TrEMBL record:
Keywords: Actin-binding, ATP-binding, Motor protein, Myosin, Nucleotide-binding. Residues 580-602 are annotated as: Actin-binding. This is Myosin XIX. One of its GO terms (cellular component) is cytoplasm. It comes from Tetraodon nigroviridis (Spotted green pufferfish). One of its GO terms (molecular function) is ATP binding. Pfam families: IQ, Myosin_head. Residues 20-723 form the Myosin motor domain. One of its GO terms (biological process) is actin filament organization. Transmembrane segments: none annotated.
Length: 931
């Protein structure tokens, strides 16, 4: 068997040119560590960093920026793809599967994305990409108001990352941006799968790093951001001149990419942290740095407190001012401790070691509570009401497995968290799936895998474990001794094979065999760190601080008024264990999606692949076993009832004679499921490779006792047929609906046409009647007016009869002489009546004017009125009616000439006669008629 396996491996590895095409490790045959490693190496050389491993995605860290791999266009491509699994492996496939599974094929379920791996493997970057993806695809709303809300939430969710990384990440030996705390981010979605809020849960901040940095490592990023990005005014306020050195800021040079102070400040502004609150935050951080430069020297008299040198007093004074407390009280709090003996208080000077411990404890408790306040503020800023969201997608980013030269309580807790996650993966996938196969009657041979339950029993087991013994030692009111505690560990846990001791080592320690390898833990200071003591005088001091924020974070924390005895029972490992159990409860109640980040080399060099480094990680996280089970098993498991409810429509509307399937009517649900599967697999549209009898499809589908086990291709086939039938039914419904709508629209058009015709005919009849009545009124009025005009015109005409009948009074000779004119064809001068109106003479080419001395003024008026130009000593009559508006003579005068100043009522009276005509007068038309 071994010889044949080696031959298969050699045959597989001879096709190295094709190894990079294996995008899923389940296609590797045979599945061995060597073949899996060779396939990953070939893809890494081709700059392909993602590979499927069954239910898990393997991500290799390139250690260099690859911008085109995470662009907006790539996000849209994976989000809009009908089948994202058909595209190249990518972290966006995992994100999209979880996003679509929120409203999944069967039951809506919350999702969890578990990103695991060693420190420096790329977990933080992967989590950042996942959050960016969801903030992009879950923000596509067409409603303007909703879009504004989503954009605001999206911006705040993304802005929480720089703040959390600045205050919680640090540069370590393995990673420039190592998370020194764990966080589980819940992205809250509403019914429309739009992002409406988020919440952040944190686990075990490594606050010891504030006061104690490992060799060749740095403090948290935010301190270096302040040193490199502060303005001169801020440096003056923080008492940080250029060139100032702080003991708690090692390796200040050179700067790294994460040392961006302005990005952190902008993120704070976007989250709603006011400028004054930001100022108070940075003053607290600056006070912590100054506090680290305070050193003590032993006093000659043990009854006296330790002394401070002059430079330390300056730093103490600066720290007190920045923290808003009295320098004297701060110094007393650091050098003297208060002991409670019943109702009496005793003051005891602290030793040199105790002074340093109290100083470090003060810095850690301030930073830890400030970090908790930031997390609470972020949650209040981005978290939605419970009624506003339905489901969530959780992104878990925790510290990776760590093994350094010196490992203490922090590394024990970190590795314990990784053990819990590995156990969750083993329990959920490797063990649970195989046990379910056997319970459902599948012919299955168990695949061996590394179970870490023994290691977890060693760390957290009951009644005796490392944590229980550590808590018991921490609660004893005595000074801890490392060697005594080691002896007790050896005595109580000697039966567990996962723990060992080096009896020849000078430093007391114990070794734990983790799933990822053995780690040596130093016992020295482990008990003190587990106590995490906070002197009550420290809390009392900061409750009186002038800094409102510092006073708030201490008053909020101690609002429960817990007694010191109750606080002493709460240890670091107990709090961390409780928070981790709540996290595991969330993971068990959600659908997990695993992403394994692999670190190709320990030096973080770009495009460098070291086989030993990679193979150890593949073995530790069980990738090979995962591929084995995924290749041979059925990843999709659906209960019979749910299966028939979802896919029974295929049998109902297919051409098969089996008829419809209803789980409520037929008690033999298993037989109905088999009929349905037979219909699906014998569908004429299936390929020839699937058009076989159902009994021959054990490699694609299997009916268990209560569930249907499917492979992904079979599920895709079911979904395609269901989608096709639903599309056909939807098309039929649309046709019927459109036909109904068309008939209804036609009927409405006919009705509307009849109504419109009736209304229009009524309107026309009413309008015609109005026109008839109006025309009758106009005609009668016009006839009356015409008769009036005719009577007036007849009254204006001069004839002999009218002249004879007129009783013309006898004029005075003088007046007659002065007011007369001589016409050329009348011998006797004609008297002009109605003086001084102008004249209009008909058929009179010229006139002779006789004037006397007494009538000179009147004749000048007549000449001005008639506008008589001189021509050959005679005067020609021309009209000036345009300016004077004189009326015209209506007929040829037969006697005296009448002058009228009224407008002519005649219809054809022309006020502006044609000047080119030879006929002169005021009414050319009538003159032509009368001549």
């Amino acid at each position: 068997l071994n010889d044949s396996l080696e031959g298969d491996i050699r045959a597989f590895l001879t096709e190295e040119d094709q190894l990079h095409t294996y995008d899923d490790l389940t296609k590797v045959n045979p599945v061995t560590p060597s073949t899996v490693l060779k396939c990953l190496q070939a893809r890494y050389r081709r700059r392909v960093f993602y590979t499927h491993a069954g239910c898990t995605l393997v991500a290799l860290n390139p250690f260099q920026p690859v911008p085109h791999l995470y662009s907006q266009d790539v996000m849209k491509e994976y989000h809009c793809a009908p089948q994202p699994q058909e595209l190249k492996p990518h972290i966006f496939i995992v994100a999209e599967e979880a996003y679509r599974s929120v409203r999944g094929q069967l039951q809506p379920a919350n999702q969890s994305l578990v990103v695991s791996g060693e420190s420096g493997a790329g977990k933080t970057w992967t989590s950042r990409c996942l959050m960016k993806y969801y903030a992009t695809v879950a923000a596509s709303s067409t409603v303007l108001k909703s879009q504004d809300t989503v954009e605001r939430i999206e911006r705040r969710v993304l802005d929480s990352n720089p703040i959390m990384e600045a205050f919680g990440n640090a540069c370590t030996l393995r990673n420039n941006n190592s998370s020194r705390f764990g966080k589980y981010i819940q992205l809250q979605l509403d019914r429309c799968q739009l992002l409406v809020g988020a919440s952040v849960q944190t686990y075990l901040l490594e606050k010891t790093r504030v006061a104690c940095q490992p060799v060749h490592e740095r403090n948290f990023h935010v301190f270096y951001q302040m040193m490199n990005g502060a303005t001169d005014w801020q440096r003056k306020e923080w008492r940080m001149p250029h060139g100032q050195r702080f003991a708690w800021l090692p390796k200040s040079d050179p700067t790294i990419e994460e040392d961006c102070f302005q990005e952190t400040v902008e993120a704070m502004c976007h989250l709603g942290i006011q400028a004054e609150s930001q100022r108070q935050i940075f003053k607290i951080l600056a006070g912590i740095l100054h506090l680290g430069n305070v050193t003590f020297s032993s006093s000659l008299d043990e009854s006296q407190p330790c002394s401070l040198d002059e430079e330390s007093r300056d730093f103490l004074q600066a720290a007190a001012e920045l923290l808003g407390v009295s320098a004297e009280e701060l110094e007393t709090c650091l050098r003297v401790r208060v002991l409670q003996a019943g109702k009496q208080s005793l003051v005891k000077p602290c030793s040199l070691a105790e002074c340093s411990t109290r100083r470090n404890c003060m810095a850690k408790v301030i930073y830890g509570r400030l970090f908790e306040w930031l997390v609470t503020f972020i949650n209040n800023s981005i978290c939605a009401d419970k009624s506003a969201w339905i489901n969530f997608i959780g992104v878990l980013d925790v510290y990776g497995f760590e093994s350094f030269c010196i490992n203490n309580l922090e590394q024990l807790c970190i590795n314990y968290a990784n053990e819990k996650l590995q156990q969750h993966f083993v329990a959920h996938y490797l063990r649970a799936q195989q046990e379910e196969y056997v319970a459902e009657g599948l012919q299955w041979s168990f695949v061996k895998y590394q179970d870490n339950q023994g290691c977890l029993d060693l760390i957290e087991g009951c009644p005796v474990s490392v944590f229980s013994l550590l808590n018991e030692e921490s609660r004893l009111n005595r000074a801890s001794d490392a060697r005594t505690f080691r002896v007790r560990l050896e005595k109580e846990l000697c039966h567990n094979p996962n723990i060992s001791w080096d009896k020849f080592s000078k430093e007391p320690h114990f070794t734990v065999a983790h799933y990822a390898g053995k780690v040596n833990y130093q016992i020295q200071e482990m008990v003190e760190k587990n106590k995490d003591p906070v002197p009550p005088e420290v809390i009392s001091l900061f409750l009186k601080s002038d800094n409102p924020l510092l006073r708030q974070i201490f008053s909020d924390k101690d609002a429960k008024n817990q007694t010191s005895k109750e606080l002493s029972k709460v240890t670091v490992v107990s709090k961390f264990k409780n928070s981790l159990e709540s996290l595991m409860k969330i993971l068990h109640n959600t659908t997990p999606h695993y992403t394994r980040c692999i670190k190709p080399n320990p030096d973080c060099k770009p495009m460098t692949f070291q086989k030993e480094e990679v193979i150890s990680q593949l073995t530790a996280c069980g990738i090979v076993e995962t591929v084995h089970i995924s290749a041979a098993g059925f990843p999709i498991r659906i209960p019979f009832k749910d299966f028939l409810q979802r896919y029974g429509i295929i049998a109902k509307y297919s051409n098969s004679k089996s008829g419809s399937v209803c789980p409520d009517e037929d008690p033999n649900v298993s037989q109905e499921v088999k009929k349905l599967l037979r219909v699906v697999l014998q569908h004429p549209k299936c390929g020839p490779s699937l058009n076989l009898d159902y009994e021959k499809h054990n490699s694609l589908v299997h009916c268990g006792r209560t569930k249907v086990f499917l492979t992904q291709p079979t599920l895709d086939l079911l979904e395609d047929q269901r989608r096709m039938i639903l599309s056909q039914r939807a098309f039929t419904i649309q046709c019927c609906w459109r036909r109904y709508q068309s008939r209804r629209r036609r009927s409405r058009q006919i009705s509307a046409t009849l109504i419109q015709a009736a209304v229009r005919s009524w309107l026309v009849r009413r309008k015609v009647k109005r026109w008839d009545s109006a025309a009758a009124v106009i005609q009668s009025t016009w006839k009356k007016w015409k008769s009036v005009l005719k009577s007036r015109a007849e009254a204006e005409l001069d004839d002999a009869k009218n002249l004879a009948e007129e009783d013309i009074p006898e004029l005075n000779p003088v007046i007659r002489e002065r007011g007369s004119v001589q016409l050329s064809h009348i011998q006797e001068p004609v008297t002009v009546r109605g003086w001084p109106m102008g004249l209009a003479l008909a058929s009179a080419p010229s006139i002779t004017v006789s004037m006397t001395a007494t009538g000179l003024q009147k004749m000048m008026s007549v000449m001005a009125t008639l506008n008589l130009p001189s021509r050959r000593g005679e005067y020609k009559v021309e009209t000036n009616q345009c300016t004077q508006e004189l009326a015209s003579i209506r007929a040829q005068p037969k006697g005296s000439v009448k002058l009228h100043c009224q407008r002519s009522p005649l219809l054809y009276a022309d006020r502006q006669p044609d000047l080119k005509s030879e006929v002169t007068g005021f009414n050319e038309i009538l003159l032509e008629k009368t001549l």
